[in-house]
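Hi again,

Forgot to attach this to my earlier email, sorry! This is the prediction with 2,6-di-O-phosphono-beta-D-fructofuranose bound. I've pasted everything inline since the attachment limit keeps bouncing my files.
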Amino acid sequence: MKPVSLIQFLIEERRAGRINAELSLLIEVVARACKRIAVATNKGALGGVLGEAGTGNIQGEAQKKLDVISNEILLEANAWGGHLAACASEEMEDPQPIPDMYPKGNHLLMFDPLDGSSNIDVNISVGTIFSVLRCPDGVVEPRAEHFLQPGTTQLAAGYVVYGPATVLVLTFGHGTHEFTLDREVGSFTLSRRDIRIPDETAEFAINMSNQRHWEAPMQRYIGELLAGKEGPRGKDFNMRWVASMVADVHRIVTRGGVFYYPLDAKIKDKGGKLRIMYEANPMAFIIEQAGGAATTGRQRILELQPTGLHQRVPVFLGSKKEIEVATHYHVEADGAQG
Ligand code: FDP
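Structure tokens for the complex follow:
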């Protein structure tokens, strides 16, 4: 079969009436920016891009040089095309307006420019996550409140993994599709159309070092997975934890599995670890479009009404039947309590 480039795929989506020209351009621009991030990431120590930037982001986390570089690449690429009303990033407290000298579009773009930062310096996969919303009608200077739309309203979501291969996974709400970067040609090429995540799995991802801080239903659920064949689940489970959300999610998108970043006593006050607008929502959209499920342990992620640009939530996502079991344990425990 003849390879299908990302551009060709976008043109076909436009012809099918699933996206408009502005959204198509937006995705092209983001993909181009991610190619530049891939180049910077691949250079490693030789590019002088490793290590701390010596600054902190809005979440109080130390920024790596590549966090800052990736953020700048995405901002710069998206400033002048006329497809955006504003963008927001993990690395900036407030949304970034489009400079006055450029035309404005009708879309809002949110991104985590370099997810999994703690893995950059040790040469383990990192990635970019993004989500696209429509700018509310009549809003000319979008502020944070205009981004606070539930995940169900996303027009597009995607991530790029900078791993042994650079891979883009994308959804417009009509299935989840994967493109692999052909480095010699310099273009993303469709590698999997309409990805399906198996409903059942025997592989889970969680940071086990937080176990003693988890809530009771999570302790119960993971305890049962660990008990294996002899336990109530009657089968052995395997565990993986890359600690880059993009890489852990990409494994699930490739062979199934489940990913958990639950609430625990250490992060309870913050509401969770992962950010709803540019981590949980786009990943939940991608996973649901591939036939999986995504909840907070209590509620469908995509239905949450966000209250802050950098709001955090617990994240349970992946193979549907397994997510249902974990979610059921939480809902049941809440019910028993009162
Ligand atoms: P990081 O802080 O390194 O950017 O976005 C948060 C995140 O990574 C996810 O990519 C990853 O899944 C998780 O945090 C890792 O958390 P732990 O440090 O608890 O392992």
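Helices lie at 6-15, 21-43, 65-79, 144-147, 216-227, 245-255, 276-289, 320-337. The chain has a mean pLDDT of 95.

That should be everything now.

G.
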